[in-house]
Amino acid sequence: QVQLQESGPGRVKPSETLSLSCSVSGDSIRGYYWTWIRQPAGKGLEWIGHIYTSGNTRYNPSLKSRVTMSVDTSKNQFSLKVTSVTAADTAVYYCARGDWAFKSWGQGTLVTVSS
Amino acid sequence: AIQLTQSPSSLSASVGDRVTITCRASQGIGSALAWYQQTPGKPPKLLIYDASTLESGVPSRFSGSGSGTDFTLTFNSLQPEDFATYYCQQFNIYPYTFGQGTKLDIK
Fold this sequence. Notes:
Radius of gyration of chain A: 13 Å
Distance between the termini of chain B: 35 Å
Order of helices and strands of chain A: EEEEEEEEEEE
Number of strands of chain A: 11
Radius of gyration of chain B: 13 Å
Mean pLDDT of chain A: 96
Strand content of chain B: over 45%
Number of strands of chain B: 11
Oligomer: heterodimer
Helix content of chain B: under 10%
Order of helices and strands of chain B: EEEEEEEEEEE
Strand content of chain A: over 45%
Mean pLDDT of chain B: 97
Shape of chain B: globular
Largest interface: A-B, 20 and 23 residues
Distance between the termini of chain A: 39 Å
Number of helices of chain B: 0
Shape of chain A: globular
Structural class of chain A: mainly beta
Largest sheet of chain B: 7 strands, mixed
């Protein structure tokens, strides 16, 4: 059974770059879509985007050009970068497997944007 | 982006009740809809996809229906572990979007 685990700094300063990784275990990262979703405290879910193991990506226009995703098949992990963060980027960030409905999720990691 | 509107936003019910939550899309999405259950501090859990297909391992008291713009999630005989927040999600058109959630709590 696939398991996902997010990792990265829990606090990022405004205007800096948020960087998270998601480690995949129990299955190969190859041949799947990998997704990032976030959830501000007490609020709903926002799809950030996904990446296929070939490197093809699709991002949510709401984050404009601030998002970059990458995949490292040798490490069985994928990553998210969000540039120029503001308080509005404070949220629990989840990684998930799937390109349309998400069956496997990480436990989530809280990222707070604060100076 | 497609907007998904869930109703009600919150609902109180009792164990054993039959409950229905609705999700309305701002434009037609065929059957490209999923439902998730989320409890505090946990990631969402996929319940239903393609509007009515039950995910493996999900109890049969959950059912989904609908197509186009109107969808429902029905609980037949609520169990204590069903009290949670439920989200719909469309995957017909990018960007994928979620409803605002329906919080189901014990009356």
